[in-house]
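User: Good morning. I'm curious how manganese (II) ion would be positioned relative to this chain. Could you predict the structure with it bound?
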Amino acid sequence: MIVIMKTDATKSDVEAVKEKICALGFKANEVPGVNRIGIVITGNKSPVNPELFLNMSGVLEAISISKPFKLVSREVKQENTIIKLGNHMIGGKELAIIAGPCSVESREQIIEIGEILSSFGIKFMRGGAYKPRTSPYSFQGLKEEALLYLMEVRERTGMKIVTEVKDVSTLQLVAKAVDVIQIGARNMQNFALLEAAGSIKKPVLLKRGISATIEELLMAAEYIVSNGNYEVILCERGIRTFETYTRNTLDLNAIPIIKRLSHLPIVVDPSHGIGIWDGVASMSMAAIAGGADGLIIEVHQNPESALSDGYQSLKPERFKHLLLKLRKLAEVVDRSLNINLD
Ligand code: PEP
Ligand code: MN
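Assistant: Good morning! Here's the predicted structure, ligand included:
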């Protein structure tokens, strides 16, 4: 249930509602960044009687929430959530393009690609430090060393850094080093990690699990938000289907459905979605045309020798070409893309 306060409700009216919720043994969650104050009740095992709140001072209405996910739902917050990182935003009118290699492979590699991307006007760089690999014999990432290189790129270029965190034990370290924490598809239902990510003060990019439904993705986001971190960016990265010509099946249906169900921003990962570099541009355009708030794209200066996901990585020149097309497309969908290319 959400208790909606009148616009002229006082601070003490709000406090009284919260106290009543706590006295009933439930949790009171004030949803931030909304025009009207809404207090969402969680922790109740059965419906709460709205009459308990309706005659309290400052209360406008008390509405039950029909969905199993509550805090991430549009029912509790109509406005889109916009995540601000310095001067940059994810979820606003400006498209958020996150680009970079699958893995940080060396200092030289990440600085070189970082400078190329920054020269294009890219504001968010990705690069894996801790890599979740299917085989234990594959490259596992440079770990702490990679974090230092990523911080150096941020220092040199001002780009915000997105990197994956694989487990609870490295969460604090990674959160301290970078700007956005990525929780990967394989960890989408690592509930201990989701809960821990709820108590950090950095935005979380949460990727859809390999076989997860949209509802499971939203419930995973609910774990993070219900633990106190409202800055979650959802990511559609393709799901496993019977199709074998592509690495995954990019579920673009998820964009309008998530936009209807949730106020959180959604970005699309066409690189993992299709798994073939030659298809990345088409899927990027399709995602933006479909209403995505941004893209996360793998770009590598020498994909043939990449230590992970080279086959789906774009060379900088091709990525540049894609950005030029995306800038034109952005206008059509009433968005913008600020890049340094002519
Ligand atoms: C990645 O972004 O490199 C990655 C491992 O993604 P996912 O978790 O979507 O497979
Ligand atoms: Mn990858």
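Residues 133 and 280 are 21 Å apart (CA to CA). The mean pLDDT is 97.
Let me know if you'd like a different ligand tried.
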